[in-house]
From TrEMBL:
One Pfam family recorded for the sequence: Exo_endo_phos
Single GO biological process annotation from the record: DNA repair
Source organism of the structure: Chitinophaga agrisoli
Protein name stated in the entry: Exodeoxyribonuclease III
Family: Belongs to the DNA repair enzymes AP/ExoA family.
Required co-factors: Mg(2+); Mn(2+)
Signal peptide interval: none
Cofactor descriptive note: Probably binds two magnesium or manganese ions per subunit.
Top-level taxon of the source organism: Bacteria
Enzyme class, UniProt record, top EC level: hydrolase
């Protein structure tokens, strides 16, 4: 079972890139972030024509998440992170596919930091920690994947000294990620590639992609039931080099059957 996550940075504007990638790699499940489209503008027909059923939570101009599946209809569990009923951002959606609960998330950026946006990021992280613990307590296979907007270690960022004051790399952000992982989650990419330089994002400025001046901010966290099923993980780095591509590259894992 191959599961991917991809911050598409505008599902309609990047639709040709998304469809090309889906056709080329054919993940069983694809979690998308930053749809940047209201609910009614989601390109449902094009996604269906590509062989995928989907659920999505749109929002005009910003945010937006979706889960695509070509191995059965995603059975939606929730479309908002618990803990703040007044938070209207479309940043989380959760479904069961093939017996696995999959949470697709787009964690707030948080810049400028310090400030209200950074406070929101940390508050969202706390809500994620609480929900993640609830999921673990249910003793079932779970994947939490998406754009976490955090580089967990210096290994995950090009020239870390330049990022010390950024919301994606501040100590509070990294501590929040490590606290989450310490509940019992497995960072899939780092587990299989502990020493490699792996990035999932390259800015559009200063030839970042060509220089490989990137960040690893798209992550897969696996519950204990899935750790031993993890057999491969990687990044489709070349997709970032396609014309009119997102500034993220698709990231994926492969799970062995039970």
């Amino acid at each position: 079972m191959k599961i991917a996550t991809y911050n598409v940075n505008g599902v309609n504007g990047r639709l040709p890139v998304l469809l090309r990638w889906l056709e080329e790699t054919q993940p069983d499940v694809a979690c998308l972030q930053e749809l940047k489209a209201p609910q009614e503008k989601y390109p449902l027909q094009a996604i269906q024509d590509a062989g995928y059923e989907s659920i999505w939570h749109g929002q005009k101009s910003w945010n937006g998440v979706a889960i695509l599946s070509r191995i059965g209809t995603p059975l939606e569990v929730r479309r908002a992170l618990p803990g703040d009923p007044e938070d209207l951002h479309s940043r989380y959606i959760e479904a069961v596919i093939n017996g696995i609960t999959i949470g697709c998330l787009y964690l707030p950026n948080g810049n400028p930091a310090p400030g209200p946006k950074f406070d929101y990021k940390l508050a969202w992280f706390k809500r994620l920690q609480a929900h993640a613990q609830d999921l673990l307590n249910q003793d079932m296979p779970v994947i939490l994947t998406g754009d976490y907007n955090v580089m967990p270690t210096e290994q995950d960022v090009y020239k870390p000294e330049r990022w010390v004051d950024d919301a994606l790399f501040r100590p509070e952000t990294r501590e929040a990620f490590h606290t989450l992982a310490a509940q019992g989650w497995t960072d899939a990419i780092r587990t299989l590639h502990p020493k490699e330089t792996i990035y999932t994002f390259w800015d559009y400025f200063r030839n970042a992609y060509e220089r490989n001046a990137g960040l690893r901010i798209d992550h897969f966290l696996l519950s204990p039931q899935l750790k031993k099923r993890l057999k491969a993980a990687g990044v489709d780095r070349h997709v970032r080099g396609w014309e009119k591509s997102s500034d993220h590259a698709p990231t994926w894992i492969e799970l062995a059957e039970k």
